[in-house]
């Protein structure tokens, strides 16, 4: 009870903690603690042990980053997190905070995080007698008619005491005199009731006037009016009226305010002639809901009467709701479960009634919802599962709307980032690829690339490529192709031969760098494309140097007679294996022809007597590749009706061919011997010149000491299927300065990592060394 609390506080400066346990909500355990303290306590004054009163561990205040959240205004209370104490932060003046409102309460919340919770705390500010009663004027001038009868009343202005309760005004006293005494009206005090008492004084000057025996009388003891807080300046609120029974000038009445509170100064104005009270300033329901004023009516003779005017301010919906974020997270993981708390929100509206009732909601079509925990307190939670790959950032708009007419609303946006988890497998553009590589390719050349996409971000989306190990004709696939782990580019490890391997498959795996990593594979069909790298091979006629093949036709052969058929094949495929046949250098161009595509040799006309009995045909077999390759088939044709004579003629023909071949080889041998002789002469002259120059250089550097600079040739890798390194030997040979006769000093072989090098160093010129190496 407030009166009991006041009595206790007057006797002892005690702090009374009152704990009221409220409801336990889904997101936090909430309680209410109430303390009472007198105003004007010094900074740092003890209020209460909030940790103990709430049943919290001191460490919980530190780990929960406990802090005070005030719904508005100045923060007067401070939280000592280390000790769990509430202390005074700033001077508390009850009159400044609450004016004459009883009780005077300060409300705030203790907010903790991890997990989020808050506790309501109420501080009851108890009044102390720290204000003197005061009059609005230091001097009062009273004009009193000489005809005033004993008991006549003269209105005096009321004194004001900002304190409340027993500390407010209690009584008035008047200095002793023979003519006047005080008569107090209801609720009119002079000296306050505090301990010690405080008082205020005013000097009254009384002017005795000529007789005016009738004072003005108001028609109402109390006038009441109402004004909307958004009323325009100049609006007439009420009209007060008083009458005077006197006539003439003694009956003329003037109206004026005798007492107006400080917070009403400059807001209302009274017409001294008509008694109309107008609005000349702005009223605000949220600052003050009612105004009380004392109006006096005074006639010319100085007789005065007074009446009270009460003006009530009616609230209108002129305040926009206010959204305050008590605690907020700017980032959550995409695997957060529904119901994860993102923010704690408090909404306020300074209006009253329906104008001050606020509903809160979030924008639609997003996986978030608002959940009300206490009046005007909300939690923003997830309302479904999140997927960063679909939406990586949400702009959550919170709308607070009151129930006024028309309703007012406010919005606040929260930008929430969704952090990535590795929940997406790398995906190739296709599930199966087909590519081609031309045979006889250069080892190490790229021929294809694959690309996988991972919808995750950062490390979760960084992809490495690998070739799954498998055999191709019992040979590891890594002997055929390799892949760039970062770019997915495929490289040929060896040179391919279409005639040996025309097709094989490779499986490439794409793996991300998440934890745990995710991967997927794709099959690539690799087809080796044929090149025209094979000459046509003639199967018939069979080439033989011992016994040339000959065809026999009778002289009576008709036109189109089939002499023979040239048969050839090509190991290449496709267009490279398409063969055509042409007749070149025939003995008689008018006698034979060859089929372009079938290789059939036929007669073009009848054989005549003048035709030679021995015919030699050269048939060119050519493929259709680019560039084309060809082979030549020689066919000997004997024209005769006598088979025995044909054999004799064919033998002569073969002998002539043999003699022709011998002459060809003799000419070729003569050319080669002549070329070798010329080369020998050139080399001999060069050696002579070189030896002469070397002797001259050796003589110049005979007095100089030259360093031996070792040289290690690079290691050579065999280009082939085995990949075996060649054995390389290293020898060091040094020439003396007078070694004109090519004297050498041999040093034993030196082994460097199982690779041997032959190293020869020779003195050459005045500053260099001739080096050479042999590779075995």
Please describe the structure with a list of short key phrases separated by commas or semicolons.
single chain; 776 residues; mainly beta; four-stranded mixed beta sheet; 57 strands; rod-shaped; disordered N terminus; disordered C terminus; repeat; cell membrane; transmembrane; glycoprotein
What does this structure look like?
There is one protein chain. The chain has 776 residues and is mainly beta. 11% of the residues lie in helices and 39% in strands. The protein has five helices and 57 strands. The strands form 20 sheets. A five-stranded mixed beta sheet has the order 1-2-8-7-4. Strands 16-23-22-19 form a four-stranded mixed beta sheet, with no helix packed on it. Strands 24-26-29-28 form a four-stranded antiparallel beta sheet, with no helix packed on it. A hairpin with a 2-residue loop joins strand 54 (751-752) and strand 55 (755-756). The protein starts with a helix and ends with a strand.
